[in-house]
Predict the structure.
Amino acid sequence: MSLSYRSLFVTEDVSVSDVIRERLGAQDTSFHETSSRSSEVSVFEALGEEVRDASISAVCGQSDSHFFVVIDRQHHLATDVVDERKIPPFVGVLLEELDATQEGLPLGNDLSDRHVNEWMDRSSSGQMVLIAAEDVNRPPRDILREVRAQILGMAPLGVVSTPTVRKCARAAGRPESVNEGALLYLRRDGPELFGSLVPSSTAKRSPSGAVARHRKLALAWAAQFELPPAFAQELTGLRRGGGSSPDEAIWVEEVERLERSLGKSQSDLDNALLEQVEAETKLLRLTNHLKYTTRRLREFEQAPMFPVADEVDEVEPTSCAEAVSEAQHLLDRLVVRVDKREVLALDNDERTLSWATKIWFALRSLQSFAEWIDAEEFSGNFVQFCLEEFPNATTYYANKVSMVESERTDRDPACRSARTFSVPLNVNPDGRAYMPAHIKIDSSSVAPRIHFLDDTSRSGLVYVGYVGSHLPLAG
């Protein structure tokens, strides 16, 4: 089973059941409704062709002085994470009509600077997604549209001033620059404030991928949320159907406990993967800076410097497909001609964020290598380049690069064929070339690889023919 959407909110509207019923009807969505004997809890299960592969439910009931609502979309037959990014179609209007709030914050896209500052000052729990704008009345439209399409209802959203987003980012330990269009996810569950920032350049070039990172974080937080005790007890009784056995009641409670535990585990995993990506990014940048500093201290001489555009330096891909796309768009010394299906297959794995970061740095390293060759400041191969300490150069881990395959694999016809990829006719008249040189992205069972052809001695370019899982070996 996989949860792909969850919205939890409270409302003061006493007609909440009627509103949900009307909204489902207005969407031409057939549904089944069940209510408890006390009528304090109602469950709406959406039916029909449009939800064939998922179960969409809306549960509402009274808790203390307000009404509590949970909207779920679950894929019961899924054995892996389901990347369904669009919110259920009736959610937007429902939130607006019910004046929904989450942890005291409006749940539409109505967050203002005042809301954010008050939330920060009182150290409240909860989460939010913020879009930085120089003029909040003229937001980055494409980014706002994507945020609403993926996250609306899961977390409070808002277009707020760039200085406010910058202040929140720094409070969450995010020192990166914040410009218009930057996306900031904030969460506080206890004394610690957690933040995840997507730079404006990345968000503007790939809004869908940028928002998807924050959507996963928002969903993971919602998945571990516990219902108010009175509400949960009523819902458990309703699911038991009144006439069920005590054993079934125990199983219902156990399933709910496991779902919460799974949500907590998924949240911890997402946080760990994000921290791993950030650590790897910092490590690669610090390693390159250390190489530069060591060389300059040792030689005390002027060395060639190659400017790196800000937009290249700020790229933080959220998927392997995005990393390849950014390379095709920004890295002019690379010709990336890969099978996109192989790249997309990598994005089905939960480690995609870590792999995307490594793929991007590997491709940037190939770009840097080609620049130094063109400047006639280096004449070796890519492995040797990665062992050097060049100023302002991006170099990958030399021990993760190989310019050849094993002799056995090299001689095997099937293996050679699998490593032969498309190139322009001016590189090879056959239109294809054998690419044994490769970069190791991971050593897991999938073990992603990048296969490339160094043509810098002739055209000044590097041809990337493959990005995907490990290709077959001889035997």
Notes: The first helix runs from residue 16 to 26. The first strand starts at residue 2 and ends at 11. The mean pLDDT is 81. Residues 239 and 252 are 8 Å apart (CA to CA).
